[in-house]
Amino acid sequence: MEKLKYALFTGCTAKESTPEQMMSTLAVANKLGIELVELTEASCCGASHLQDYDDFLSLVLNARNIAYAEKHGLTMVTICNTCQLNTAMTKHRLDHNAELKAKVNAKLAEVGLEYKGSSQITHFLYAIIDDFGLDKIKEMVVTPLSQFNIAPFYGCHNIRPSELQNESHKSHESAYTPTSLDDLIIACGGVNVDYEQKNKCCGFHAELQAPRTAAVLTGNAVAGAMDANADWMVTPCPLCHLKLDTQTHHASVAIGREVSLPVLHMQQMVGLALGCTPAELGLNHHVTKVDFV
Amino acid sequence: MDTIKSQQVTFKVFRFNEETDYLPYYNTYVLDVTHEEVVLDILNRIKWDHDGSLSYRRSCRHGICGVCAIKANGKGILACKTRLFDLIETFGSEITLEPLSVKRAIKDLIIDKKDFWDKHAAVQPYLVSDIEEHPASEHLVSPHDAEKLLEADYCIQCGACHYSCPALEINEQYFGPAAFAAAYRFSADVRDEASVERLHTVNEEAQGVWDCVKCMECAEVCPKEVNPIEKITKLHNMVFEAGIAKNNVATRHAVGFAHSIAKHGLLDEGELVRYSEGNIGVLKHVPVAIKMFTKGKIVLPWNMPKADKLDEIQKLIKSSSTVKF
Q1: Cβ contacts (< 8 Å) between A44 and chain B: which residues?
Q2: Structural domain span for residue B315
Q3: How many domains does chain A have?
């Protein structure tokens, strides 16, 4: 197989509050022999909030990020669900609206760039599953996670709206019965746990504006995983990770029950199975202690 | 002739009578379903062949009246337009049929939608316009202006999004996606004269658009493809454009992204929290921030990374910004 190569859009958290996500992405890519070209010019995607203030500005900035992936002639890989949604949504809107695309390109021309629509945008989770292949990962597992019950937490912005999301990757994912993360857990030798909240919202995006709503959603998610006997949770989204890893105190108060579970980034789980060391995966950067390795 | 495909399905149907039952229960029916049957056909078969006391709402059978909305395995659906074989593809051959909101059940699949209608009514879901009794000409809407409604008028008030919204499930004051789609429908209408009044209503904290958790479930579940969250975003934009955005944590949180990107290209996470909450409000985040700091999760201001070619980003922000706060 030809070596896989992608343009990596890291998003902001990988450079700030979730350094372990960046470390584990690079460690796993290295193990799998995937080449990632970091888009160092990329800006913040606006995280679904900038567009509430200034939708056009949000489109221009995201189109600029995609334009850099296009310059490399590569598929853009995201490692944050919200980056994925914002970028894919921008692509969808520009590819289906010539007038809007021309307006955005008129702005990009001011800095010598053009959005063409030639690069695909996919989350690293789907790049691994669709392009690398679960069977090959399975073959490469050196430390099967067989003693762990692992609760997948999909994160809204990778699975909804499914019509848009399913344009971005080859495998079909249902918003109601998603399977990608479960399949990846199984490929890593773990036991996937089924629970009601696995495809629900963690509350991250309303944390400041509606703190109680956000805390109850976090609490429900962790409680759901605990009640299903999960040893830990795993998520492809660093924003879900932040919420589930750092906010369990508020969540416990909000739902009137002590909840807490270690939460791993999807890349950390794969890294553990592939034999990366805890230090390589940044497992010491978690607020909720990862006590099983 | 094509052979009719059929499959055996186990249906668990929610039963509850507000007047006689303390707790709900489920009845199980194992039925052969054909590929052309919709959920409403199954409800009818259960009622007509097995248990005449099963209660559910039905009327048009054409996906336009909105009364037959229920949940199948947690997914909001219109019973009359959802094919069993599509449900089987998603959920397998065990299908649980429940009312849209279990806690609002009156009788079996019938719920009390009072909260839905109250919230719908609160956004003035009608055209407000002073029109002469005998106008000399028609009040025309150009195709271009009609497009601005973004198909928000396709909403049939079925409640599928309203009762699937996690923000509303927790905060009962929250208007929810259907009311917002209706608010947008009329505020975006060029003939309407109550646009700003409506925007004030949806701009209030706790009940308004700021409490949206952005889970996208309303876009996913809507059987008429209204895409309510797109309208919620539009309402946010209209609040800023109308110059009525209040200076509060929610508005500053949206605006803060623009400030941060202009400065670093990236989001300065710590500064966003400080800017949104204010210098005093931010103090409540200190305990978590300390924990995060000890784990290397906080970048100090002087170490804040910057995007390459920041000048490009700054130039684009200058030339592409469309609103001011």
Answers
A1: 257, 260-261, 265-267
A2: 249-320
A3: 2
